[in-house]
Design brief:
Elements: H1 3-17, H2 19-22, H3 34-37, E1 67-88, E2 91-98, E3 105-115, E4 120-127, E5 131-135, E6 148-163, E7 168-186, E8 201-223, E9 226-233, E10 236-245, E11 254-262, E12 265-273, E13 278-287, E14 294-299, E15 304-310, E16 316-326, E17 331-340, E18 358-368, E19 373-392, H4 394-404, E20 411-431
Antiparallel strand pairs: 1-2, 1-3, 1-20, 3-4, 4-6, 5-6, 6-7, 7-8, 8-9, 8-10, 9-12, 10-11, 12-13, 13-16, 14-15, 16-17, 17-18, 18-19, 19-20
Length: 432
């Protein structure tokens, strides 16, 4: 491998490696409504509280009467830490730590539904299924593997629900996803021999793209008190197109792109009204993360497509159960618990994929302020299981070997990741 090819591969690995941080479970957002947040999003494909129901299952539009509008926001406050040892040939050269690497965010949403007749209901949703921002800083000495990333998506989702009969409903919609992202790496130290200053960008890449997808769902009203819902969201294929620059690109802006597929997902859910006060709801979610096998960048002016490294992700599953208690005619109380499995095995977990199993604990309430207006709030604590990681990259090792001239030099990072997340949301729904 020649020197230019090594530099390009190293740079692409740094530039794109941090994007996998966003492709962990934190990138796939469940936070579409404060109503669902209060029950840990348990049973969502079978619930029809307000117009937000269409975002998880468009068939649930058929359970909404008249015209309904729902709007709200969820505040996400993550506390994710990464710490460990930077090693060369198995010997620790530095102990390093990056705290609070994931940024807080407010996730807004807006939904509207309109019943056309006793069979069909239209809906329109504005929200997001994916997004994250991380920053490990330049004091983190493993920042050679990447130090910043952001993936931001906004989704416009028109839907139609159709009631076949009193038992069966179906629904479908299209998804227009607008996405942008940036990824970068910086030098944690000064290297005068290479004319590199501490904190200087080794590379920086950003791009954006818009793409289409679809969703579909169905509901079975078994009897007046029991219901099952299923839904499917298609994959959305993006090609984030923009530019790359930094030392490895000669400090020159170079056009480039990063293909990025938002994975398909599915849900099966149930709702059971036990009596006038108590209801129980549950769901199982699946996400096709096993489709993510590798990262590959395209920088035409520097050789075209470049294989970065294999990812070998696995499918992610989420299990949730919740309850609703009608305390008074106006006040409903909610609770839920969920378990979210990691999308990567221990053997493949790295600093750039601080992904691990998570447990959700949720509380919420809904208050009918008037005949037409309902206010909802939810609070959730997400605990991330502590997990070990060990990262190395053949492109970095090849460059290190070239610079130091030993027979072989292996640079690696061995450490742990841990953390938690607080979520708080509010929602207002109005029926005309």
């Amino acid at each position: 491998m020649n020197k230019n090819k090594i530099t390009l591969s190293l740079t692409a690995a740094l530039a794109l490696g941090m994007s996998t941080n966003a492709l962990a479970a934190g990138f796939q957002l469940a936070e579409y409504s404060a109503t669902g947040l209060g029950r840990a999003f348990a049973g969502e494909a079978a619930m029809a509280d307000n117009a937000s129901a269409q975002f998880r299952n468009p068939a649930m539009l058929t359970y909404l009467e008249g015209t309904q509008v729902s709007a709200g926001a969820i505040y996400v406050d993550p506390n994710i830490d990464v710490k460990g040892d930077l090693q060369v040939n198995g010997h620790t050269i530095d102990q390093t730590e990056a705290r609070n690497i994931a940024h807080s965010a407010v996730i807004p949403n807006f939904y509207i539904s309109r019943q056309l007749n006793d069979k069909a209901t239209l809906g329109l949703a504005f929200g997001t299924n994916f997004g994250m921002r991380t920053d490990l800083g330049t004091d983190f000495t493993a920042s050679i593997f990447g130090n910043q990333a952001e993936v931001h998506t906004v989704e416009i989702n028109p839907n139609l629900g159709y009631k076949i009969n009193d038992q069966f409903s179906v629904g479908a919609g299209v998804r227009y996803v607008m996405a942008k992202g940036h990824f970068g790496a910086a030098s944690p130290i000064s290297l005068p021999v290479l004319n590199i200053k501490k904190g200087q960008d080794l590379k920086y890449m950003e791009g954006k793209d818009n793409a289409w997808g679809w969703q579909a769902g169905a509901a079975w009203q078994i009897n007046p008190t029991n219901r099952i819902g299923v839904s499917y969201h298609s994959a959305v294929k993006l090609d984030l197109t923009g530019h790359a620059n930094g030392i490895a690109f000669g400090n020159t802006s170079r056009p480039g792109s990063l293909p990025l597929e938002l994975p398909a997902s599915a849900e099966i859910a149930s709702f059971h009204q036990l009596n006038d006060q108590w209801a129980v709801h549950a769901s199982v979610n699946w996400t096709d993360w096993s489709s993510f096998k590798k990262l590959e960048a395209n920088i035409p002016s520097m050789g075209g497509n470049v294989d970065i490294k294999p990812q070998n992700w696995k499918d992610n599953y989420r299990f949730a159960i919740g309850t609703t208690y009608q305390a008074t005619e106006k006040l409903a109380l909610r609770s839920g618990i969920a378990y979210d499995t990691a999308a990567v095995d221990t053997a493949h977990r790295t600093q750039t994929i601080p992904e691990t199993d998570r447990t959700w604990l949720s509380l919420g309430a809904g208050y009918q302020w008037s005949k037409n207006l309902t206010l909802d709030a939810g609070l959730t604590y997400v605990y991330a299981k502590k997990a070990h990681l060990n990262e190395t990259d053949k492109n970095i090792n090849e460059l290190a070997s070239m610079l130091t001239n030993p027979k072989e030099t292996k640079v690696s990072f061995a450490g742990t990741t841990s953390g938690d997340v607080w979520l708080a949301g509010v929602q207002a729904s109005y029926r005309f």
